Amino acid sequence: MSLRLLSLSGANVVGIIVACAIGVVGCSKVDSFSPAAHTLIIGVKSDPRALNPLYLDGSTAQRIGGIGFSFLTHYDPHGNQMPEVAMQVPSVENGGVSGGGTVITYHLRKDVRWQDGEALTSRDVLFTYRAIMSSANAVPSRTGYDHVASVEAPDPYTVVVRLKRPFYPIVSEFFGGDSNQTILPAHLLARFKSLDHVAYNAAPIGSGPFVFTRWRHDDRIDAVANKRYFLGRPALDSVVLRTIHNSSTMVTQLATHEVNATLGADVSDLAALRALRGYRVLVTPFNGFLYISFNQQNPVTSDLAVRRAYALAIDRSALVSKVTQGAYLADTGLRGLFTWAYDPSAGNIPYDPRRAATILTKDGWLPGPDGIRVRNGQRLELQLAVTAGRRSEGELAVLIAAEERAIGIDVSIKSYSFEQMYAQDGPLYGGRYQVALASDISYYNGDAAWFVACDQRAPNGFNVARYCNAAVDRALDRAESSFDRATQVRAYAFVQRQLLKDLPFYIICQQTEIDVIPSNLVGFEPSLSATPFTTVARWRFR
Question: What is the DSSP string of 379-429?
Fold first, then answer.
């Protein structure tokens, strides 16, 4: 998941808190491991395109949002919805959900302040919603928010959301744990027609536990504890994010203590990470999945026979076990997408290269002199796009290419940087690919519309396969509009079976979060809902 590359200004937002915080960081030595300094230096795989969550998505949005900003609600490490800026999680039982599921009411805490001292109020929530929906802002997705008919702020601490129709995921998607979007400060941003190029994007003021104080592009981001944080001053004095694109370099810098943590480490490095002294390695299944996407607008991969043969040729279990050292789960890939709504009885695609060859032959693809299949003078050649620097994905790509060649498909591998691969105008979202090996993080609420619905086809959403099936859309609508769990389960089970028939993508495995933290760091909790940063204010060194 990604967004349009932005031309960001490096200028700081004028504000005394930022100036003071920069002074603190400038005097702190954080480039070497020193628990006594109460600084956690976290190695991350990529540099964000902004420090404004309005323009972020996926794990990057969760990381930046969790460190510097606040949500109305969030998930705890066990996947339960919890209040944050909201006083309580709206429900039918507490009256927060009414009107047959079309009216959601939030009552806000009165002690939340922006890092410059201004109060956070309903005006900020209303402003941020309008910023998300404004065509003047190049946001990566409006999923969830596009179900909203109107948002009202009847008083400074009440927000009323009216929906176009009942939509059960709204509480987790409206500035909640399934949203990339955090609340933004109206008093700093409301005067701008567009936020795409404002200085705030590089030096934001949030309401979260840490204040961003310095950003060296593609190098490091510094943040210091927010003394005004409404849930209490964080236990750590500062957090540093160091950009390290190469996974082997990440291991080396952990060993030398140039960084002292990494979250979401490359699974290929698991053995090396476990051999490091002074660290804990936590492996947690979560709502992430690794998949092969077939571009439905490409003349070759729009052919279901080619897609099915491609999937049948992959010995998924053997490859995943070999490359991930058994850490990823080859048989529960759909659980990574559907979370609690996963239906194990939906089945999966078996490894059957003989059947794959038969399907291609019936489809008119016949073996040529060199074993590569040909139809009407065209060789069956497919390019597989992968992300450079992710060693596990690179290794999988090479093995997949070998298995495809065994049934007569010539697969070449094209590598892109993370920033290129997931850019709004990159191969995935720009539609300039045939087959791609990619990874994604699903919403924890079970709804997969963001990934498969017709109206979410890229570049308008995250449906990078550009898949569209009216029956799937109707089933998604049935699930989303019902607050009855049994109805949701039946509808999502149908969607899973239909996806296995249509094969717009082939999920290789459910991913696990691999977190490496200092042995003396406490308060850290790996999360079922993809990000541990909901607890960052409680992290501390013993």
Answer: E-EEEEEEETT-HHHHHHHHHHHHHHHHTT-EEEEEEE-HHHHTSTTSHHH
Q: What are phi and psi of 21, to 5 degrees?
A: -65, -40
Class of domain 16-243: alpha beta
Helix (H, G, I), strand (E, B) or coil at 198: coil
Distances from the Cα of 396 to the Cα of 182, 307, 316, 437, angstroms: 35, 18, 10, 9
Tokens of 517: 């933290």
Measure the CA–CA gap between 239 and 38, rounded to whole angstroms.
9
pLDDT digits (tens, 9 = 90+) for 476-527: 999 999 988 999 999 999 999 999 999 999 999 999 999 999 999 999 998 8
Cα 74 to Cα 541: distance, rounded to the nearest angstrom: 25
Q: Which value, in Å, is the radius of gyration of the alpha carbons in the chain?
A: 23
Domain with CATH 3.40.190.10 in the chain: 16-243
In total, the chain counts a number of residues equal to: 542
483 by Cβ neighbours in 10 Å (0-12 / 13-18 / 19+) ranks as middle
Q: Does pLDDT of 12 surpass 60? A: no
pLDDT tens profile 49-93: 999 999 998 889 999 999 999 999 999 988 899 999 999 999 999
- 466 touches 458 (CB < 8 A): yes
Q: Which fold has domain 286-513?
A: Dipeptide-binding Protein; domain 3 (3.10.105)
CA distances from 515 to 144, 328, 387 (A): 29, 14, 20
The boundaries of every CATH 3.10.105.10 domain in the chain are 286-513
